[in-house]
Structure formats: C-alpha cells, structure tokens
Amino acid sequence: MNRAKGKGFLKLLAVAAIACMAALAIAGCGSNNADPEDPNIKVGASPAPHAEILAQIQDELAEQGYNLEIVEYSDYIQPNVALNDGELDANYFQHLPYLEDYNAENGTDLVSAAAVHFEPLCIYPGKTKSLDALADGAKIAVPSDTTNEARALQLLQAQGLIKLADGAGLNATKNDIVDNPKNIDIVEVEAANLPRTLEDVDMAVINGNFAISAGIDTSTALASEDSESEAAQTFANIIAVRAGDEDSAKIQALVKAVQSQKVKGFINDTYAGAVIPMF
Questions:
Q1: pTM of the prediction?
Q2: Domains along the chain?
Q3: Confidence band (pLDDT; 50, 70, 90) for 201?
C-alpha cells in the first residue's frame, strides 16, 4: 500500500470510528437506566384507579430496565405498614393529610414523592335525578369520616343547597349548617358503603375511587368538587416513600413516568372527571 492510499485508509477508519461512537451514544439514550442489582420497583396500590394508572407505565419503565410490580391492597393500613417495613418501594393510594396522620399515630417517617391525581367528591342521583327536583326534606348521604364529610358539605354549599358557618372550611360538620332552606336530611354513611345507599336516598356524595369500584357511571354525576378548590390542593393522591428514598433513581423514574402526558390522557379519557390529574 502506498503512502497516499495509506493516509486515505486511515481517514476512512477515523470517520468510521466517529460514526460508531455516535451510534453508540444514540443507542445509549434508549438503553437501560436501571441499576442491574436493583431493577425492581414494587408499589402498593388500591385497585382503582391507582393500580389501573400504574399499569399504564409498566412498559415505559421496562424500556428503562425497571420491573414495575403492582401489589393491590383493599385497605388503607397495610400499604403503609408494608412500605415502612421495606416490603414496598412506594405506595399510591392516599393523600398527604392521611399520610401525616398515619405518621403521627405510628411513629413512621413516610413522605410524599409526588402528587398525581385528585379524586373529587361527586353528587350522584338516587331517587331524585336532578338538583332542581330535590323536594323539601330530601335525604342526601355523605361520608361519615370527618375530612370527607366536611368536603361533602362544602360541595352541597357550592350548589346552594345549604350554608355553612363562616370559617368552617374543611373541619365542617352537620352542626355548622346555618341555613338549610330545603330541610335536607344529611345522612352520614361510611364512605365505602355510599354507593349502596343510592336506592334509599335522594342523592349521595361519593368519593371517586368508591364510585369507580362500584361500577357507577361517573358521567352521571350532578356536581363535582372543582380542581382548583381547597380540597383539590389539599387532598391530591400521592406516591409515598420512606424518607430519604424520594430522590433515588428508581423513584424519580417512577414519578416521571406517572406524571406524563400519556398518563394524563389515560386519566381524562377513562374516568370522566371522577379522577383529575394534578400535574
């Protein structure tokens, strides 16, 4: 090989090497980001809508090298027990005030990694099919727990059905009703049982997750908490983790995937306003 040809050959080799490096860099952008020694993300969740939402991101996380395992729970205690004990990497079923109360009562140190969605309370028709048709003395069922009852009363007030004492806010109870022009009978019912009351009351104010789980057509809701309401900002459902884990690579990958346009579209298309994205 003469010198000129040799220089040309070396130049081709250099160009080829640069091209290979560029191709490898591009390929690396889509390669696994997970720690090969810790590729699993185990998340506890309520069946609906939480587990359904998480199912939408399994493939995306798999492309990054993560295996997202969704563990469904039907109660609100065990997911925090399992998270605190290290059986889960995260859970997704609760809002921040609930988590803070749990920490205070149990001496745990669980924190929010991100807010994902809000499940507004909605008024669903029972015997009476419209708010305008409510008769004097109509019965409206509301959640019996303190927090959700206050939210339900605020929603009824927003529809002009009752008036609450000034400053009652999210601590309101039936005793804070100062004006009730239709003499509405407020019936307190355990939140999970509200869907079953619809045959017996004129209307019921039902949590989004319980309405979905009961198979209620959420598009039939007569009124709903606003996404800009105090309740929406306070009671957004969160991804909870052990303190110190919120900045880990796997939790950040989980948060980024769940706070995506794909998930926002799924929520909006699937739940007809019974679940509202908060990102």
A1: 0.76
A2: 40-119+235-277 (3.40.190.10), 122-226 (3.40.190.10)
A3: very high
